[in-house]
């Protein structure tokens, strides 16, 4: 006799408060897992377009009606707006006992959901460590995506199940570690976009016709090496202590793209510190290099001290 099949997890009515780039993608992913999006709130034209594309047929209604219709509510609003939203929903009686209240902020854990918890809601913090475009490609990118998860002990299994159903991998983050966790992701992902965009602009000015094609293999290899080897993957004139080349870079940037000088110097100083600490940059080559890097964005000398890790102090 065949064993009885495993019971299917309960299917949930899903609502989205805030149709930014994240909410509709997560709801669409939950729909693929068998859950049922029932309502979404959004105001701007861009939000309404995203909702129509990713959640076709799902009614757009005010947040209070989303709360009325949904068993699982995704609060996908900007970080600074989240505390006020939660407080307002709780004070107006919109939160129902037993309702799953999920926010996707990287900065906050479940403490920000305390007003909803006191009203009987079940709080979860599920932050996808992914950049979103607001299109259907986001749903595909959730496959294998890590989620920073914070949840009360009694809800850990529920949080884990939701992440897995969206194709993600749960990574447990302590409540007090959420700001540091989020800062780490912003440092890596958000600043990477700025650096790549600046690099592409400079290559165009240098006459490169397809900077994206030139940078793609180089940056892909650099990222792969960094993820595999950490600081051991550092290469280039700063890690080599090639002060003359770095000085030439700074001079050219001051001439052609002065707005990029401060960022170049800051990153080069940090690179020099790490290369010194890991024995990649020879101390006898560091002095001239750090002298070049001590100059400010406009070429003035450092007012009172060198960069962190400067061996000349």
Automatic annotation (TrEMBL):
InterPro entries: 6-PGluconate_DH-like_C_sf, DUF2520, NAD(P)-bd_dom_sf, OxRdtase/DH_put_Rossmann_dom, TM1727-like_C_sf. Residues 302-313 have a biased composition (Acidic residues). Residues 294-313 are annotated as: Disordered. Pfam families: DUF2520 (PF10728), Rossmann-like (PF10727). Residues 145-271 form the DUF2520 domain. Residues 7-128 form the Putative oxidoreductase/dehydrogenase Rossmann-like domain. Gene3D superfamilies: NAD(P)-binding Rossmann-like Domain, ProC-like, C-terminal domain. Transmembrane segments: none annotated. This is Oxidoreductase. It comes from Streptomyces thermolilacinus SPC6.
